[in-house]
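Q: Protein A?
A:
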Amino acid sequence: MIFIQSTNDRKIIELYDLQIKQRAEIAAIEKQKPKFSKFDNEDSLIATQGSHLAHISNYAEACGDIIKTTECIAAKEISSITKQYENKFVQFSGAERVQAVCSSAKPMIEQLGKSDVLGVTLYNSLLQYFTAGIDKGFYQYDYVNSSKYIEDFSAFAWNEFKSVVNVNVFSKRDVTLLSNEFKETLYFTDSLLSSLNVCLRAPKSIRNGEYSNWSKHRLEKVSELSELQERAENIEKAKSLKNDNVTKLQFLYWPFIIILALSIKFGKAVNSLVPKKI
């Protein structure tokens, strides 16, 4: 029993030592956190901008299963993807919320591209324009110019579309048909881009992924610490259970052991009183 206890004690001590080292690593990582202005006052604005994205799924739901217009069809196709990202605009707070939204922005756009719900031309225009906006790096509180940049997307997208779809390549009828479809899809794409305004104004470390990488690294170390703590707690519980079992054994059988010992001792004493044969 002493051997088992000492083995468990050594394991617990080793785990405590590892926890100390892990906490030191986490403290070092905390010091490497990218520095930028806080976004504590933007939570409500980000949530409001997120309503632009939610507008797409709300439009699709309003259409129901009865209305089959091209607008409704476009809303349903696009919202099947964008709806997955709506909760990002109300998660966490401050810089963590900005990180949640902006780290999901490109994956969302790329997912729309893979599904081909926007069409190749509009998808390429959206990805190109959003990436260029990120590279511009608007000042955090430059709401006017970041909003103006988003408003100008429609004109940019139409120019890109007309450079591909025109009467030199398509018939007038096809140009009209494709233009109408493009217009309807562009309406919802404008809503999507409007929801990502904060990403144009986000700090460089968020825009270039530095903050995301730091956050993931820190989370990994915190998870490792939690695992070490859990292992130590499990050993402590197992050790406590064994000690309880020993205590129960002593409580239940110790009286009988005492009686047996006393009986043996009494028997020897009685035996010593028997007269020896001469």
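Q: Protein B?
A:
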Amino acid sequence: MKLTWIQRLVLLILFSFLLSGCKGDMTDTGNETDIPDKNAVVTESMSEELPVEQTEESTSVLVQDLGELLCERDSVRDLMLVVDRRGLDDITVMTSQEERERILDELYAADLSGFESAGPREAGGIVEKYKIQTDEMEVSLSIYQDMTGNYQYITIAGPDRRPISEIKGPAGAFDFPRLGKLAAEVRTNTEDPLYSGTASVPESGYETKMNKLACGYALYFFETALREEAMEAPGEGESFDVQIKIGEMVYQLQSDTGYFSRTDSQGTSYGKLAEDALLVVLTEAQVGHSLKEP
């Protein structure tokens, strides 16, 4: 039987409706779970990992003050200024109890809530360096202000000089003029009975006071020489022309050879200063002009 074009048209329309109905049945069966909605999965995952309520303070504040970053103030036993460096050694000046308390007042009053973890620091700027000792540890504390004056940095390092903590924050947390003034008072102090002293040339009767900076250099070079090589007592006829007293220790020194003795409550030891160390000690002691020409 041959269909007319009208019949063909009607059959085509019916066929189209049948296909449409089948497609609608497949959509409603719920079998689409085999192809999940990626956006829905991501949204759900993020909502589980991140709290709904997050404040800027809870994610950015590392510490509030030096007590949280380093140690409690009451646990600080000794505080030293780092005044120079020689090789891997720091040359330090010990603070008295009063000096230590004044410096700790400034350090522990700083608000560190604006500080964050820091990357490499640019060279330059000003710095105050300290060594802090407690009963449990010894660390170096360095506080920098960059050349722009906009940022301050804190670096804490262990005895091996490896950084333990490095953070960066806005300028103004530490009062650098005040810290510098306190450090200068320590270095120039000539009245500390333990860590300042005198230098004299007995033959001429000349004597002068040595401040704590000068004594810090002298102690470093004398004690380093004794650790590196202890020497025998001098023979007959040997004499010393310079005497340096620091606290309870008395150093007798030959200004031409660097040979010296150290006497304290434990007895007398002998050593010899290297040529460059001898020059520094005589310069800091300010006795060169009173010595006889060799």
